[in-house]
Design a protein that fits this description.
Elements lengths: L5 H20 L2 H18 L4 H11 L5 H25 L4 H6 L1 E2 L2 H8 L5 E5 L5 H9 L4 E5 L5 H13 L3 E4 L5 H12 L3 E5 L9 E5 L2 E5 L2 H9 L3 E8 L5 E8 L7 H22 L21
Parallel strand pairs: 1-9, 2-5, 2-8, 3-4, 3-5
Antiparallel strand pairs: 6-7, 8-9
Helix pairs in contact: 2-4, 3-4, 9-10
Length: 302
């Protein structure tokens, strides 16, 4: 439970609103330049999540030297600051321009949507995931599963922005039957269920190897697809020099063995293999700030 006071939450909210105002006044190139400076200063003088970033990279790339890890770490901070800044500008762009910023195999998506069973889009905190979701929402009906933020003011502001941009926002809590019904209903209405499925799932997850180390993995995305009979596509966007996002998207054949637990495991193993591949190609684009291996498998606690 958070020990933050209502005043602290409100102060954080006001600070975020002021930052948004400053970003809008500035031009995007200047804001991005200042963001890179802020990223380097944060990395160098404010050890915010620096330990988590370094530890995660060391787990994933044990063969890399300390100097190489530091280089990727610094690039990770720059990428994250770039995403934060772009959130302020992209929402102000015309819909047509936002759509053109996302490059992907549209035929693959259209074929999946033509089945009229919805689509589970398994993505990750990779590249500019906010741009990916927003661009998809300009062309397809997108449902977002969101967890409630500890700061009520920020939580309300973010959800209002999402709904304004056309997202079907579904608040989700574990073991919440109302949330589950809302998710299945969205899929049956042929909506795209966009899920970032790469974070620690705590004790409710299943443990699978990720970069060779056991990680708690969310069951939800695979379970929703099986329950609604929906196709699955994995999608990861790699930022390009011109500011666009090139999506690597692939079908993921949903197994139907009759053993739901095994089918969920199979889906997640394929997802992880594909995610590892894109991370190895562009390691600085993943969200290393998250403690991905935080929850230990049961045997490790004995």
């Amino acid at each position: 439970m958070s020990n933050r006071t209502e005043f602290q939450n409100y102060a954080e909210y006001i600070g975020l609103k002021l930052l948004m105002l400053v970003m809008i006044i500035l031009h995007r190139p200047l804001a991005q330049f200042l963001g890179r400076i802020a990223a380097v200063l944060t990395y160098s003088f404010i050890p915010l999540r620096k330990k988590e970033v370094t530890e995660g990279l060391t787990i994933a790339f044990p063969q890399k030297s300390k100097k190489e890890i530091e280089k990727i770490s610094k690039a990770t901070y720059k990428n994250f600051f770039s995403i934060l800044i772009d959130m302020f500008f992209i929402s102000k762009m015309p819909d047509e321009k936002i759509e053109k910023m996302l490059i992907y195999d549209k035929e693959l998506i259209e074929n999946a949507m033509s089945k009229n069973k919805g689509l589970v889009l398994m993505s990750a905190h990779f590249g500019n995931w906010e741009l990916s979701a927003l661009a998809f929402a300009k062309k397809y009906p997108v449902a977002l599963i969101v967890a409630k933020q500890s700061n009520n003011f920020v939580d309300r502001m973010m959800n209002e922005f999402r709904m304004k941009e056309g997202f079907n926002v579904i608040g989700f809590q574990r073991d919440d039957k109302i949330s589950f019904r809302g998710i299945v209903k969205a899929l049956r209405k042929n909506q795209v269920l966009a899920i970032l499925a790469d974070q620690d799932a705590g004790r409710d997850g299943i443990f699978l190897p990720f970069f060779g180390k056991s990680a708690s993995t969310p069951k939800g995305p695979a379970f929703f697809a099986i329950a609604a009979g929906s196709p699955i596509i994995t999608a990861f966007g790699v930022p390009q020099k011109d500011g666009s996002m090139k999506m690597k998207i692939q079908d993921l054949i949903v197994p139907n063995t009759g053993n739901t637990d095994e089918d969920i495991k199979t889906i997640n193993m394929i997802y992880y293999q594909r995610l590892e591949e894109v991370i190895r190609e562009n390691p600085e684009q993943w969200f290393w700030f998250h403690r991905r291996w935080k929850t230990k498998p049961p045997k490790a606690n004995k």
